[in-house]
Amino acid sequence: MTVSSRSAAREEVLARVRSAVGDSSAVEQSYAQVPRGYRDAGGGERPWEAGAPQTVALFLERLADYGASARLVDASAAPSAIAEALAGRSASTVVVPHGFPEQWRAGLAGVRVLGDDPPVGLDALDAVDGAVTTAAIAAAATGTFVLDGGPGQGRRALTLVPDYHLCVIPADRIVRSVPQALARLDPVRPLTLVSGPSATSDIEMKRVEGVHGPRTLEVLVVAAEPPPEDHRPIDDPAES
Amino acid sequence: MRTALFVTCFNDTLFPNTGRAMVRLLERLGCTVDFPLGQTCCGQMHFNTGYQRECVPLVRRFTEVFDGYDAVVTPSGSCAAMVREYHGRVAEVAGDSRLAAAVRRTPPVYELSEFLVDVLGVVDVGAYFPHRVTYHPTCHTLRMLKAVRQPLALLRAVRGIDLVELPSATECCGFGGTFALKNADTSVAMCADKVRHVLGTGAEVLCATDNSCLMHIGGALSRLRTGVRTLHLAEILASTEDEPASAPRTAEGATHR
Amino acid sequence: MNGTTFLGMPAFPRAARDALGDAQLRRNLAEATRTIRDKRAEAVGELPDWEELREAGRVLKEHTLRHLDRYLLQFEERVTAAGGTVHWARDAAEANRIVADLVRRTGRSEVVKVKSMATQETGLNTALEQAGVRAYETDLAELIVQLGQDRPSHILVPAIHRNRAEIREIFRREMGTGAVGDDPADTDALGDDPHELAEAARRHLREKFLRAEVGICGANFLVAETGTVVVAESEGNGRMCVSLPETLICLAGIEKVVPRWQDLEVFLQLLPRSATGERMNPYTSTWTGTADRDGPREFHVVLLDGGRTATLADPIGRQALNCIRCSACLNVCPVYERVGGHAYGSVYPGPIGAILGPQLRGTASAVDRSLPYASTLCGACYEVCPVKINIPEVLVHLRARVVDDSRRRPLPRLEGLAMAVARWALSSPRRLAGAQRMAAAAARLLRRDRPIRRLPGPLAGWTDARDLPVPAPESFRTWWRRTHP
C-alpha cells in the first residue's frame, strides 16, 4: 500500500461521505440537541454519594448475579480477608502490580508475590495462581469495575492470563451507574470494564462462566473507614 | 360529528358481514356513519409489495373521498396504519405537493376499537356472545397503531363471553400480505404455530381486528377441519341476544351468512 | 463490489424452504431465540429510562452520520497523535489488501482474531489465507463455525444453529486430528456439557494467544473526540487479542464512529442488554493508540466504506447504518426464528441483514432482490431495536427499489401485471364493483359455496396449506346501496 493510494482512498471515501450527506455545518449546535433524558447523563448531579451503603449492596448483589464471589469487609479486616481468599484457592504464587495499597499487603504474607517489575513473561504469568489488584472505579447497577492500569492495577495482561483474579476495591470508588463511572475515567489510558468472570452464551444461548479470561473472580469491597493512603478521592475532577 | 366508514376493498369484497356488523353496532351506539361510495382501497398491498407508484391514484382517491369528514372508522388495523404512516410517503415519493397537502388534511382514521374506546368513550357496547373466544392482536394494530388495550377491554365487557388468553399472542401469524405467496413455506410454518396456540386454548372462536390475518389463520383452521371459527371483533361486538352473530364460518360451514 | 453473499446461495424463499425442513435446526433456533428473548426483556425491563436511552442512541447515530466526514477526520487525527495509524479502504478488497500487507510486514504467518462482523463482511480470512496467513478465530461461536467449515448464521452467536451435541462432534473431530493446530486436548473424553465445551475451547486456544504476535479485531465503537477504540465481548478472547500481541489491526466500518467519550454511557447501556440480555457484558476493552508498557507496540485502524457511503446517500435507507450489531432484531423475528441465518445468504442475517445487505451490496443478485421480501412487516424488530431503526419502513422502501429496477426490464413480470390490473380496478369504485360482481358470478358459476381448496400457479402457495374464502355473493357496497337508498 503506497502512501498515494492510501490518501486517494481517504479522499474518495471522504468525498463520498460529503456527497451523501451534503453540507455538514453546525456540528456543535446539532450535538447539543441530542436528547439526554436518561438517568445520570454526563455523570449526573454531584455529589454522587459514592460508596453509599445501598450502592455497595447493589454492587455486591449484581456481581454475585454474574457468578463472582463478592463481599464487604472492614478496612481493618482487609488483609485477613485477602489472605483467606488466597488460602481458599490454595494459591502459592500471585502477581500483584506496583502500587497495590501498602495497608493491604499484609494479606499477601503467605504467598510468593511477583511484582511485574521487571515484567513477568506470558508463560510465567500463565503459571501463577492468580492476580491481586485493586480497581479505578466501579458501577453498582451493572456490577462492573474498571481497571485503568493505574496504581495497584498494572498492565492488562496481569488480570487476564491468570485463571484467578482477586480485586480489592475501596467502597468509595463504587458509584451507582455506568454514566457516573464513565465520567470518572480517562479514555487515553487502556481500560478494561469487567463485569463478572469470563463467560459465554455461545452454546444454545445459555450463559456459562469461564472461558479465556479468569474463570474465577473474587471481589472484596473494603468499607470506607479509614481511607487507604493512596485512595484517589472520587469527587476530585482533576484526578486521573 | 360526521363519521365515514372506510370498509376497505378486502372486506367489501370478501367479508361484507364485518362492514354490516360495524354499521349495526355503531347505529346501536347512536353513531350514524356514512359510507361514501367513491371509496376503494388504501393502497397497502401495492405499497407493501414495492409498487409505490401504483399507490398514487389510490391515495389521491382516498383523500378526495374522505375530505370533509370529522373522522374515518375502519375495521382494519393495518389499513388504518397504512393511511396514517405511509400516505404522506406516497405523496412525497410522487413529488406531488398538492397530494401531500391533501394527505395532511385527511381526517383522523381510527381502527374500530380505537374509535369505540378513545373517541366514543364506550367500553361496554351491550354485546352478548356466549362463546369461548381467544383474541389474536394483529401486528399492525399492536405495533403500528399501538391499540393494545382497547380490543381486549371491549371483549371483556361482552356479556356471556369466555375470553381466554392466547399463548404467544403477539407473535405474527405469518400472513404479511404478499409474503404469504412469495414466502409461502415460511408463512405456513408461522401459521402452524399460531394454529397450535389457538387450538391449545380450546376456543370456539378466534377474534382479531383484521380480516386479512383471520383469513390466513382461518384458512389453516378450515383446512385442518378444526371446527374453530374466525370472527372479526366487529361481529362479536355487534352480536346481541336478539341478533346473534350469524352462522359460523368454519371448514364446512358456508363463508357467507 | 463490496462484500459478497455466500457463494451459490439461492434466493431467500428457496433457501428458507430447505431450512424449514431441518427439524434439528428448527428446534435449536426455537430454543435459543426463546432463551435470549426472555433474557433481553428482563434486562431491558429493569431500566426505567430505556426509552430515553433509545432515543438518545438514535439521535446520536443520526447526528454522527450527518457529520460523518468531520468525525472521521477527528478520529484519524487523535489516533495518529496517540501513536496509531489510520488506513482507509473504499471496498472489501482494498481493506483485505491493507490488512494482508500489514500482517506480511510483521513477517508472521499466524494471527488471532476477535469476532468481527467487518472482517466477516470482507471475507478477510480467505484473503489472508491466499496471502499465506492463517487466521485463528477465537470467539467460541466463531471457532465452532471455523472448525465446522460452516457459515455464520447469527450476528452475535454465529453458531446459534448448532446445539451442544453437534458442537461436541465438531470439537471431537477437529481438535483431535491436528488439522487446525496441535492441541493436546483429550477430545475423545469430551462431553457435551457447555462448561466442558468452553473448557475445550480454552485449552485449544491458550497456546495461540500466548504466542500470538498479531491480533485482528473489529470495533463496536470508535470515539472521535479521543481516538479511542471500544471492543465489547464476553469470553476474554477479545482482551487476549487486543492486549497480548505486538501488532494490533482493527478493521471497522466508517459508521462505527461516535462523537464523544460521554456517548458511550448511552451505547454501553443499550448494547449488552439488547445483545446477550446482560446488564453488562463481562469484558469491554477500550484503548487509544498505543500505550507505554501495556499492549501492542504497533496499532492500525482500517476504516471501511464497503457500500456504507452509498447507503448513507439514501435518506430512508441510511438509518440501517445506526445499527450497533446487537442482534435483538434477529432474536425476535418470527421469520428468522424459523429459517435461521443461512437462508439470508450473507453474514448479516435477519431483519437487519435484510435491509443492510441489499444496501451495502446493491440489488443485482437474486438473493439481494429477495431479502427485502423476507419479512411479514410485523414490526417486532423495530420494537426492540436499541437505536430505533424502523426496519419495516426500510424494507418497503427497498421493495420499491427492487420493483422500480424490474420495470426497466423488457418483459413485464406476472406480478407487475397483476399489480397493474389491481391498480386499474381499484382506481374507480365502478370498476371495483364490476370486479366484485364478476368474482361473485364466477363463484356462482362454479357453484362454490365452500372455501377454495386449490388454486393454480403462484396462488397455489396459499392453497397448498390454507383454504381461501370465495368472494361474497353480495359485496358490502351493494348491500349498502340496497339498504341505504
TrEMBL record, chain A:
Residue ranges annotated for the LUD domain, each copy included: 127-222
Residue runs in coiled coils: none
Signal peptide: none
PANTHER family to which the protein is assigned, alphabetical: LACTATE UTILIZATION PROTEIN C (PTHR43682)
Protein name per Swiss-Prot or TrEMBL: LUD domain-containing protein
From TrEMBL, chain B:
InterPro entries, A to Z: Cys_rich_dom
Pfam family of the protein (one): CCG
Domain called Cysteine-rich: residue spans: 4-83, 133-217
Top-level taxon of the source organism: Bacteria
Protein name as it appears in the record: (Fe-S)-binding protein
From TrEMBL, chain C:
Organism: Streptantibioticus rubrisoli
Domain Lactate utilization protein B C-terminal: 412-482
Domain 4Fe-4S ferredoxin-type: 320-389
Key word Ion transport present: no
Protein name: Lactate utilization protein
Lineage: Bacteria, Bacillati, Actinomycetota, Actinomycetes, Kitasatosporales
Entry keywords, A to Z: 4Fe-4S, Electron transport, Iron, Iron-sulfur, Metal-binding, Repeat, Transport
Entry keyword Ribonucleoprotein: no
Domain LUD: 74-304
Highest taxon of source: Bacteria
Pfam families recorded: Fer4_8, LUD_dom, LutB_C
SUPFAM superfamilies named among the record's database cross-references: 4Fe-4S ferredoxins, NagB/RpiA/CoA transferase-like
